[in-house]
Design a protein that fits this description.
Length: 514
């Protein structure tokens, strides 16, 4: 039992069902820890004794051998295959996470990324032998510049947050070049921003000043003007924002920021809702990162590998980081040193994530301009189909307002049920769905944020919608046990998540001898 009084391991869920000898239920196999499977005194691989050597670990050297489990090859393969079956993935079903696009990655992209000339390229090989790889970087950069309407682009940032850092470092360098580095030290960050925005600003020495969101979920020009002052360096605004809404006053905000002598950083995590529909550069944006996994279909999750190129306006282009690709006649050169330029320096050791560049360019070329625009339109259509199909049962914080790529609900409709957003999310697991993003954005109480993406068919969306409608009817009908006991059919039951976060068990310890 966990601290909530619910069993952590699965139980027979239906009357008359029995517990099996193995703990497995058909192909739902109860898998032991790898330490419990393998022997600690043997290994399935013959390892030669190490030759004499002088240790440099000093007092940090261990007196005992590490307790690593020894498994045969079949045991190791079976262990990880069985574990993989417990993972939910976009290849298994609809992944409704809002704020964090999880969409199908076309297999064509994977095929292109695995071509030997791209998969085997090495960052330290002579550029004369990697002209094709540099051409991919150049072509992708050119395409992103066309779509954003910007003047320059940095390709080396490794992810969205790394891209934020790049954009804000360019802004900081531009302000220093104007001689205002000591006086402009504040970054304006709306309440509805991604959490990485204020963290990024603080990391490089900016103070953060919050800007409130209005009752309509948007940031107003008036609120921005009230926060602007001679000490403001930049605003960090997400558009579409974390509530899934387009910032309708973005042009006015950009003008106000520019008039105040500051810069406009746009969090481009949600660029996938507006590609082919509007260009951030035309809206007055000075810097914007692009999450390639969200907009251009590259793998997502597990902390990487990722890519977060940053588009820069003409005001910030001179301060772009190295390295960058430069065409010299018929050849391409990787400019790796900032000497003689206003570049703020180097963001990372090499040019970026080659595999992500190939996948993104493959996605762009295979879709074309009309296909990319349709992908944006389909993403918005899917989200609004979900919103309209659930609005009569689930409460939306901003009413009937048209959303962009994700639909947002709150927990007001659960008020008289005694259930919470978390209960509803756990019940979705029993229905075979990964829960949507919950309790984010923070400006909405008990938030449930759903992003169906453009990848899902109408049949897939209908099945998902009907599942949520069935759960909503059950919640309102007082079927509390269906929610408070959930998940029942998952490999593990509901955990005490607070205790798991505060007292994590991160290493296996040998049980005491019987």
């Amino acid at each position: 039992m966990n601290r909530e009084g619910r069993p952590t391991r699965p139980e027979p869920a239906e009357a008359g069902s029995r517990t099996t000898f193995t703990g497995a239920r058909g192909l739902d196999i109860e898998e032991a820890l790898i330490f419990e499977t393998g022997r600690l005194d043997a290994t399935g691989v013959d390892i030669e004794e190490a030759a004499p050597f002088a240790s440099r670990l000093g007092a940090l050297a261990s007196d005992a051998a590490p307790e690593l489990p020894g498994l045969t090859e079949p045991e190791a393969v079976r262990h990880y295959v069985r574990l993989s079956r417990d993972n939910y993935s976009i290849d298994a079903g609809l992944y409704p996470l809002g704020s964090c696009t999880m969409k199908h990655n076309p297999r064509l992209n994977e095929k292109m990324a695995r071509l030997p000339g791209f998969a085997d390229v090495h960052p330290l090989q002579p550029t004369s032998t990697a002209q094709g790889a540099l051409a991919v970087i150049e072509a992708l950069a050119d395409a992103l510049l066309v779509m954003t309407g910007m003047s320059a682009i940095a390709m080396s940032p490794k992810a969205g947050a790394h891209g934020e850092l790049c954009g804000m470092m360019a802004i900081k360098a531009a302000i220093a070049a104007r001689g205002e580095g000591a006086t402009r030290h504040v970054a304006l960050v709306p309440e509805s921003a991604h959490g990485t925005n204020p963290a990024t600003a603080a990391l490089i020495g900016f103070s953060v000043r919050s800007v409130p969101a209005g009752d309509d979920g948007n940031v107003s020009v008036e609120a921005v003007r009230a926060a602007l002052a001679p000490d403001v360096a930049a605003i960090m605004l997400t558009n579409p924002n974390t509530a899934g809404l387009f910032e309708r006053q973005i042009v006015g905000i950009a003008e106000a920021v520019r008039e105040a002598g500051a810069y406009f950083y746009c969090d481009g995590a949600n660029f996938n809702a507006i590609v082919g529909k509007t260009r951030p550069g035309d809206l007055g944006v000075d810097a914007m990162h692009i999450n390639l996994h969200k907009t251009f279909s590259t793998p997502h999750g597990g902390g990487g590998p990722g890519a977060g190129p940053v588009a820069l306006s003409s005001r910030l282009a001179p301060f772009a980081p190295v390295p960058f690709v430069r065409r010299e006649g018929d050849a391409l050169r990787l400019v790796e040193h900032a000497e003689g330029t206003e570049s703020f320096g180097r963001m990372s050791a090499f040019h970026g994530q080659m595999g992500m560049f190939v996948r993104a360019l493959s996605f762009i070329l295979s879709h074309g301009a009309d296909g990319l625009r349709q992908a944006s339109e389909d993403a918005v259509l899917s989200a609004n189909y979900v919103r309209a199909s659930l609005n009569d049962l689930m409460s939306a914080p901003f009413g009937e307002r048209i959303c962009m790529h994700e639909a947002l609900f709150d927990d007001r409709w659960l008020k008289d049920t005694g259930l919470s957003t978390l209960d509803f999310a756990k019940a979705m697991i029993d229905e075979g769905y990964h829960p949507m993003t919950v309790y984010f954005p923070l400006i909405v109480h008990g938030a449930m944020l759903i992003e169906p993406t453009e990848s899902e068919s109408k049949a897939s969306l209908d099945r998902f919608i009907m599942t949520l409608r069935d759960l909503a009817f059950a919640a309102k009908a007082g079927e509390r046990e269906r929610f408070t006991a959930a998940p029942v059919y998952a490999p593990r039951r509901r955990l005490d998540e607070t205790r798991a976060a505060r007292q994590p068990v991160l290493r296996w310890t040998r049980p005491p001898a019987a």
